[in-house]
């Protein structure tokens, strides 16, 4: 006889349960009314015949039905319906042999309803009563029809067999109708398999009932044979029940783990979820887990007490009978813990009211239960929760060893799954968040911002850079700069609010997305951020000053047009704009605006399309530079240097020039910084050095001893292998090292003097000339000048320009000349454009002059012509002097 239950709520929300209850109640009433009508029809068709002697028969049948109910085998169906297959067909077959319809029906109802009430399954009494009536009514109808067809006067065993077999088939089909009415899905194959298994068991039970009755009544001393047959059948079913129990336990464990894992993927997939809150399974899933454990144990109630966040009270989930309100907030091992929840270790504890200690009996009475299984959920470090199972329903003997093993194993799997989810959530949180500030990192920000831009295209992206990082790191160390970053992140969050996506990208770079905002609102927010972030940062006894630069771009800007609102955009463009600007594009544009603000000295700057063209141009320059060197677009020009006062050509400075096919002649100030930022400066240095040494070798082959000067970058001074490369180049081109001058700036040396000094000493040991370029404009590190292994200093042209009109510049130039000579250095003056400046420098004792007065930077061809002209002029002067002397 199927014992139908409510569907397991693994795929229902909590709002569905009242609807399911009402639907099941209405269906139960309909089943009961239909069954009563069917029973009335069968009673009219088969009127009661018999006397008082049937009372004992009825009592024996009640006893038989009660016994088989206690020897039942429970089966759970994936579709959400559970029922019990018992030996009901055996006493039913005997009843078909010896009693009328009314007696068997009464015996069956008394046994079935009393069993349900004893198990306190009150919610299924109406449905099960109707199902039991249908079983007996259909069995007697089929029995009567088959017996009439056979045509014998006495009850025929075949008619009894068919009638008894029709009862489980009827209840199974009714259960499938219940599955459909309750809106649960069950595949046709699964339903067919279920009916076929029920049919097989029904065949066995009906056969045993018929054969047992025939043997007991037709064979002398046949009752022992019947008892032996029943004992063997019961043992077979008991073994079968054990196999089914193991299979169902494995399925239950798998389902519980899958529910936790599935909800974990949903919760942890959001980067906004924290490592603790992401581990909280939804109430719907927890109720499904509790219901699944309850169904598996056959318990009246299962209580889950779960602690989602450390330090927070436990959350209570109840499946089955209601729990008293004051028992919901009982804390394990806490001040309110009762005897059931003082849980050392992690083993299952089994409590019975009948043999319990007084405090345990009190705890059971507070739960309105006779017995309970209690097991903690523990991870390696702390208590995650507690599982309680109250009162066994399926057997009067209570929970057994199989139930204890099942709930213990389930608790272990559940604790492991929860601990794994906590670890997974922590890992996912760390993957999406910056460990220093707790804000989003770049991947987390990209995901959240992408989701928001999908539904809120009218948003503005902010990019912020703190202007304090290098100074703090150099002066106080990285730990102090990290403290400034943490404080800045806290100020950003306070200013923008909790709902604004905010990220630390790297170092002191931050990004934020202002949802449903425009440029005007973004400018107001940017001004507030500048005020907040520029305020001094108190760190211990220090007060650190910091600056901030902000660039921002709009998500509604496309094709160089900014749409201030949706109505001002042309049709089609409104749809195209958001689709073309993803998070990375917005960040790139905001970064372009930020760099523009830094270049112009502003604190905030909005992105405009012209900035995009500048960025595109810079990108093209960087990506095309290496190819341009190979194709000859990048060339070397040379600016001559002469000795003072003899005006003899001593050397040239190699200057790089780039004639771009699209952009024309490019000034080094435009492309060299981009090349350095892209990491291509080593290739540029090698290119210039190689070309310059080839030129020196060519002059040497012609009998000219002209040196060449090559500018070095900061990157070269930090490369310990650079001197070896210079030595190899000199050897390859057979150029004496004294004809090569390497020029470096003050700021380049002072960026990291301890790292630059070994490189400079190695170059000095090679014999190359080292010159400090633009001297006087950088750190003015005169003290370091004595420590540096340099050979000459170059006076910055800004001082040379001002000598004729500014006495201060004249004094600076004279001081540098005197200082250089006192240190044994050659002094070179740049920017000489007038005869007066040349004469003044010569009078001061300056050694070398360079500038437009001597020559502009020249290409190789023009330099050769210039040298020939100077050589001819010098030869002419010598001839003129000889003629003068002879005359």
Automatic annotation (TrEMBL):
Lineage top rank: taxon: Bacteria
InterPro entries linked: Cyclic-di-GMP_PDE-like (IPR050706), EAL_dom (IPR001633), EAL_sf (IPR035919), GAF (IPR003018), GAF-like_dom_sf (IPR029016), GGDEF_dom (IPR000160), Nucleotide_cyclase (IPR029787), Rev_trsase/Diguanyl_cyclase (IPR043128)
EAL domain segment(s): 618-871
Residue stretches spanning the membrane: 24-47, 54-73, 93-118, 130-151, 157-182, 222-240
PROSITE patterns, A to Z: EAL, GGDEF
Residue ranges of every copy of the GGDEF domain listed in the record: 457-610
Alphabetical UniProt keywords: Membrane, Transmembrane, Transmembrane helix
Gene Ontology molecular-function annotations: cyclic-guanylate-specific phosphodiesterase activity
Protein name: Diguanylate cyclase (GGDEF)-like protein
Organism: Actinophytocola algeriensis
